[in-house]
């Protein structure tokens, strides 16, 4: 079967952060059952999901981001607790909460606007910065137990992020997200 690649822009997490999140996932796997767990190299914070994309649109979005990233310095994020998307008792997505910062929102807006200007149609739901850890719960979960479990996980220190990455998805590989272009945030 010939699958089309999907593309997205994301904040790349430092390796130390990926290791700590993988420790969280390993501990959580002992308590909750999900169909798939994300490969640690695939942990990221999505800024704009593009889906299948034309080469010209990708090129234009990359050019705009390269121009507009100037003046956006690296940003610090704090990862606190767990959250879910989907049905409360049978979540579709388990995620680590990447707390919004004053710098993250303008960076996200810059990337989002560049993609719109390049001709992409993007999701209009409110931005919820998160790091997906697992997909498709196999059992019922009491939402309160997930919140409590997230509070028991060891703290992850603030993380410095300075890379926006354009990723291509390859569902036949692990890790499945391949970096296509990188944009360093620097003042």
Q: What is the name of the CATH class? A: Alpha Beta
Helix content: 25-40%
Number of helices: 4
What general form does the structure show?
globular
Could you tell me how far the N terminus lies from the C terminus, measured between alpha carbons in angstroms? Answer: 45 Å
Task: Identify the strand order in the major beta sheet.
Answer: 2-6-5-4-7
Structural features:
187 residues, alpha+beta, Cyclic Phosphodiesterase, Chain: A, 5-stranded antiparallel beta sheet, 9 strands, 28% helix, globular
If you had to describe this structure to a student in words, what would you say it looks like?
- 28% of the residues lie in helices and 36% in strands.
- A five-stranded antiparallel β-sheet has the order 2-6-5-4-7. The protein has a four-stranded antiparallel β-sheet with strand order 3-1-8-9, covered by helices on one side.
- The chain has helices at residues 15-29, 55-68, 104-117, 143-152; strands at residues 7-12, 34-37, 44-51, 75-86, 91-99, 130-137, 156-161, 163-169, 177-184.
- The chain has 187 residues and is of the alpha+beta class.
- It is globular.
- It is built from four helices and nine strands.
- The protein has a single domain, classed as Cyclic phosphodiesterase (Cyclic Phosphodiesterase, Chain: A, Alpha-Beta Complex), CATH 3.90.1140.10.
- Residues 11-95 form the Phosphoesterase HXTX domain.
- InterPro entries: Cyclic_Pdiesterase, Phosphoesterase_HXTX, RNA_CPDase.
- Keywords: Hydrolase.
- The active site is at 44 (proton donor), 130 (proton acceptor).
């Amino acid at each position: 079967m010939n699958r089309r690649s999907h593309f997205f822009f994301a904040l790349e997490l430092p390796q130390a952060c990926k290791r700590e999140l993988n420790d969280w996932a390993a501990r959580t796997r002992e308590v909750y059952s999900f169909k798939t767990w994300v490969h640690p190299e695939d942990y990221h914070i999505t800024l704009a999901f593009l889906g299948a994309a034309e080469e010209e649109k990708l090129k234009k979005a990359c050019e705009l981001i390269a121009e507009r990233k100037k003046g956006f310095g690296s940003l610090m994020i704090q990862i606190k607790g767990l959250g879910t998307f989907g049905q409360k008792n049978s979540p579709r997505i388990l995620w680590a909460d990447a707390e919004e910062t004053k710098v993250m929102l303008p960076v996200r807006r810059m990337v989002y606007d560049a993609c719109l200007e390049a001709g992409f149609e993007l999701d209009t739901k409110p931005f919820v910065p998160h790091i997906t850890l697992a997909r498709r719960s196999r059992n019922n979960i009491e939402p309160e137990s997930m919140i409590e479990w997230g509070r028991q996980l060891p703290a992850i220190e603030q993380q410095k992020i300075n890379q926006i990455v354009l990723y291509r998805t390859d569902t036949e590989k692990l890790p499945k997200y391949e970096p296509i272009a990188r944009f360093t945030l620097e003042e």
